[in-house]
Amino acid sequence: MNGLPGDFWETLPLGTGARLLTRDPNGLAAFDKPHGMLSHPNDSTDEPRALLTCRYDNEAQCFQWKAADGSDRRLWLLNRLDSATSGVILAAASEQLAEAIRDHYLNKKVHKVYQALVFGQTRQNLEFWRDQLAVKRSHGRIRTATVGNVSAETQFQLIRHTQKNFSTSLVRLEPRTGRSHQLRVQCAKRHLPIVGDQTYGDFARNRAFAKGTKNKRLFLHSLETGFTYYFGGKSYTFRAVAPLPKDFTLAY
Description:
Blueprint lengths: L18 E5 L4 E6 L21 E3 L4 E5 L5 E6 L8 E7 L2 H12 L4 E9 L6 E13 L2 E22 L5 E8 L6 H8 L13 H11 L6 E12 L2 E8 L4 H6 L1
Parallel strand pairs: 6-11
Antiparallel strand pairs: 1-2, 2-6, 3-4, 4-5, 5-6, 7-10, 7-11, 8-9, 9-10, 11-12
């Protein structure tokens, strides 16, 4: 398979709770990352809580480790999720394939679907959100404001609303742009803060929710990623789905 060792996928140093969802013959793979796990370690102290518990080369954007036989192995990371966000994350087993897929991300040819649990109820069941945001990076932190000059677009759909213990809505979010913290900020702007969002959310309701449910996670999940890509002169279709975690269903 694409020149890979026969045990390549079975012996990945996956972090606790992470699992391989699917892979294709070219070496493109999707994983289900649990909330609280890093997409990649920032330094060696982070390795035990990353998607793969091994060294990460920031410049090459790939994981590196030694196989049981002493050979060097690599896996290239294709996208990132905030540690608090769960769900689909992609990787490639070759640098050439990684470059091809990253071009798809840059050219906005990747279809992504998220689900989130938010406080409140919407007036419309289906909306298209368009905002101008400002993304700032400082001392390793990212903050996004609702007033800026960076376009952010998202298709919103209500799945269901419940008034069980809290007024919450399960929603489907399809980002058409890929701005940092885009979904969290766009939800908060419309008075639909994502449950558990410690940066842009409703802190009082977060505390009450965590006390009542014993769950402090950010309720944002990367549900599905799909696209058609070209590699080696051929066209391939790839799709990966990470089922909604149980803590979502228990919450609503």
